[in-house]
Specification:
The complex is a heterodimer of chains A (419) and B (352). Chain A is mainly α and 419 residues long. Chain A is built from 19 helices and two strands. In chain A, strand 1 and strand 2 form a beta hairpin. Chain A is extended and about 95 Å long. Chain A starts with 9 loop residues before the first helix and ends in an 8-residue tail after the last helix. Chain B has 17 helices and nine strands. Chain B is an alpha/beta fold. In chain B, helix 3 links the parallel strand 1 and strand 2. The longest helix of chain B is centred in the last third of the chain and has 20 residues, at 332-351. In chain B, helix 7 (173-180) crosses helix 9. In chain B, strands 1, 2, 3, 4, 5, 6, 7, 8 and 9 form a nine-stranded mixed beta sheet that branches. Classes of the chains: A mainly alpha (419), B alpha/beta (352).
């Protein structure tokens, strides 16, 4: 009886062995997980967090910021706020700590940057006013500021100061959606001539969708030929697909400039053939963007399609034919449904890559063909408005995530098979 | 010289591995470094300034190059180990860098006083190095009966047919539009600072919108002009040197051009600030500056230098008195204040 029952502790030993295996497996993936966390998720998270972070004013002018937070933001600022500003501004100017806060304020109202810097300069140059900051000071403070620049008499500037005094803000996210807070702190649309980001997001999605469709239309027949042709031909075709794939993106884009420009190869042929009597504008417009992006992204459509089509048994088409289906019906009812996972994967891959495109539209597009990433790069490197860049990135990431979720919902996870 | 070259290589690799520098605590012991914009421009500077400075003063000098950006300077200064001493900065970096305390104040008395230099070359934290211009240029071969003479002609697509090249963005573009609409060059920024002025500039741009090809990189407009893609374009004047040497007859319309000054600055915390001041004084000398235009078409900033430049060279320089008189200085403060707002407006306009 004792021999039949498992020796005591076997279960525990088994469990221990199991745990040791788990730990070993974990230890094997841990370096990669840590690496991804450190160099991928942490920076992205930090960048996205920048779209709501707003520490500048509170760091530079702490007393002013805390006085501003107490205020309801309506009408003229209370004396406490103006006095604190007059007290803190000159020292911050002398220590040259103002630049960050000045830039943040300038994002809200253009010209605030030089207003705050020049006020700081003037206050620092004036002899110390004994009344400033004291109980008797407040009225003096407001009038002193207004005397330096009449913009200080405008409540809009104080409301902007108040908006910047909290450590978290929805300012950048609202801006990325063409919204802002008005004087009464309500969310309102920005004036039509400043509204661009919604248009640009729509444009980005439209271009990406169009490029995906073009890639599908061009890639599907080719993938079919490669998947069904004899080995020699299909290898050759595959090399032709992959060759441009290995060429630098910049080179391929520049090549399109050479081909499509007014005195380029294609216009030369059209003119010589007498088909047109003056050069057709094919570059620096939407057409050029579609052509160049479709060409660059085509392999990403062909490869998933090919890998799925190769697994489709040709016997199924023959079976359909022997059962009396004419070729179009056989294709639509038998082949197409089997190739759907490839279409889904290729389409998703091309769409997601296209949505973040930057270099190609910048080089072959006009001013009206730039996509969201162009503006992210613009705000990151040129105007150093990282909050807005982060907000736009968040917007793009959210849009991609929502589309992906919708796709998975419609197609089911089985429909997404990358590669 | 052999020893010097060895030192250069050594210091360069030390700079590349910045951490090594900090670890060794060698920051105070390193050679003076000067940073410019590379390419044919820095080649010219090497012949005119850097080599003679090494020979005459015996001070070892290391070169580096960069592409601008206030973020780079910020990282250098706030990162602790300041590996650059003398840097050529654009007006925007000069203005913001000075506000942020990234740059050392200039001792103008040691340079002979502020009035020895062009007004726009004088500022608290920088000494003007060169004057460059964004100009209207056209291919004379395309206009046998005479080319455009002003921004108003640039807008006149009836008499001067063909596409127009302009920089993608509001900077320069809005100024040119206002001048084409009859605003006097000296009033451009006053008008542009008002809502009506901005509306007026965009209304003027509406008139040639279908004819514009937008460029982004400075190398593009000479190519657009050479390939015939555009009949005329706005372009950075120095970029026309190369195609002209290849025999292209590209002409510049100076009236209404916008000039800007690049300046020599010294980074705060530089351990070689004294030597850096010597270098800047050396490069600001009238006789030395006068040699630069032989190599590249950039104007110089010392007023006395202008007088010894041969007239044939002088007429191509943004700083020639006859060209300067009809040009507008770029208003950097206006653009640091309004760049975000006007960019939005520009892109919203372009999308219509």
């Amino acid at each position: 009886m004792a021999a039949e029952a498992p020796p005591p502790g076997l279960k525990a030993r088994l469990r221990r062995a199991e745990r040791a295996r788990m730990l070993r497996a974990l230890a094997l993936v841990l370096p990669l997980a840590l690496f991804l966390l450190l160099v991928f998720f942490a920076p992205i998270g930090d960048m996205l967090f920048r779209s709501v972070r707003d520490p500048e004013l509170a760091l530079t002018l702490p007393a002013t910021a805390s006085a501003l937070r107490e205020w309801d933001g309506i009408g003229a600022p209370p004396a406490l706020v103006t006095a604190a500003l007059v007290r803190e501004l000159p020292q911050a100017f002398i220590d040259r700590r103002l630049a960050g806060a000045a830039q943040r304020l300038n994002h809200d109202i253009s010209g605030f940057r030089s207003l705050i810097l020049s006020t700081g300069r003037q206050l620092a140059a004036e002899p110390e006013d004994p009344a400033a900051g004291s109980v008797a000071g407040p009225t003096t403070a407001a009038s002193r500021l207004a005397a330096m620049d009449d913009r200080w008499a405008d409540p809009a500037y104080w409301a902007a100061l108040r908006r910047a005094s909290f450590s978290l803000t929805d300012f950048y996210l609202l801006s990325a959606l063409d919204l802002r807070r008005d004087a009464a702190d309500r969310i309102t649309p920005v004036p039509p001539d400043e509204a661009i980001f919604v248009t640009i997001l729509g444009r980005t999605l439209k271009i990406a969708a169009m490029v995906t469709l073009l890639c599908l239309a061009l890639g599907y027949p080719l993938a079919y030929v490669i998947a069904t042709a004899p080995a020699g031909t299909s290898n050759l075709l595959m090399i032709l697909v992959l060759l441009p794939f290995w060429t630098s993106l910049l080179v391929r884009t520049s090549a399109w400039v050479v081909l499509l420009q007014n005195e380029g190869v294609i216009n030369g042929l059209l003119l010589a053939a007498g088909l047109v009597d003056k050069p057709v504008q094919m570059i620096f417009n939407r057409f050029g963007v579609y052509v160049a992006m479709t060409h660059v992204l085509l392999p990403f459509m062909i490869l998933p399609l090919y890998s799925v089509m190769r697994t489709i048994n040709p016997a199924t088409m023959r079976a359909a034919a022997s059962l009396g289906a004419p070729p179009p019906t056989a294709f639509l009812r038998v082949y197409l449904p089997q190739s759907l996972p490839g279409i889904g994967a290729g389409g998703l891959l091309v769409f997601i890559l296209a949505i973040g495109y930057y270099i190609t539209p910048a080089l072959v597009g006009g001013a009206n063909d730039q996509m969201v990433s162009y503006f992210i790069a613009f705000y990151t490197t040129r105007t150093v408005n990282w909050g807005l860049a982060a907000a736009l990135a968040t917007l793009l990431l959210t849009a991609t995530g929502v589309l992906y979720a919708v796709y998975v919902r419609i197609a089911g996870t089985a429909g997404v098979r990358l590669g | 010289m052999g020893d010097g070259t060895f030192m250069n290589v050594f210091i360069k690799s030390a700079i590349a591995a910045g951490s090594v520098m900090t670890l060794a605590g060698a920051a105070s012991a390193r050679d003076l470094s000067v940073v410019s914009w590379g390419g044919s421009y820095q080649d010219a500077q090497r012949k005119v300034y850097f080599e003679p400075f090494r020979q005459q003063t015996g001070i070892p000098l290391v070169e580096d190059s960069w592409d601008g950006g206030i973020g780079t300077l910020r990282a250098k200064v706030e990162g602790g180990a300041v590996s650059w001493d003398v840097v050529q900065a654009e007006a925007e970096e000069l203005s913001i860098g000075c506000d942020e305390g990234l740059l050392m104040p200039i001792d103008w008395d040691a340079l002979g006083g502020r009035d020895k230099f062009l007004d726009s070359a004088v500022s608290d934290c920088g000494v003007g190095a060169i004057v460059w211009s964004t100009v209207l240029a056209y291919d004379a071969a395309k206009f046998p009966k005479g080319g455009p003479k002003s921004w108003a002609d640039f807008w006149d697509v009836e008499h001067f047919p063909g596409k127009r090249g302009m920089r993608k963005g509001p900077k320069y573009t809005l100024e040119f539009a206002l001048m084409a609409d009859g605003v006097a060059p000296k009033d451009v920024y006053t008008v542009l600072a008002t809502k009506e002025g901005v509306d007026r500039a965009f209304a003027k741009l509406d008139k040639i919108k279908p004819h514009i090809i937008w460029w982004e990189a400075g190398a593009q407009p000479p190519q657009l002009l050479a390939s015939g893609e555009v009949a005329m374009t706005s372009v950075y004047n120095g970029r026309l040197d190369a195609p002209r040497r290849e025999g292209k007859d590209f002409r510049i319309v100076w009236p209404g051009s916008i000039y800007a000054v690049d300046s020599w600055v010294i980074l705060t915390g530089s351990p070689n600030a004294d030597q850096g001041r010597k270098l800047i004084a050396f490069m600001s000398d009238a006789k030395r500056q006068a040699q630069l235009p032989e190599y590249i078409s950039y104007g110089v900033t010392n007023k006395a230098a202008m007088q010894s430049i041969p007239p044939k060279l002088l007429e191509n320089l943004p700083s020639a008195p006859q060209n300067l008189d009809v040009s507008v200085p770029l208003n950097v403060r206006f653009w640091t204040d309004h760049v975000d707002e006007l960019n939005k407006r520009f892109n919203s306009w372009a999308a219509q």
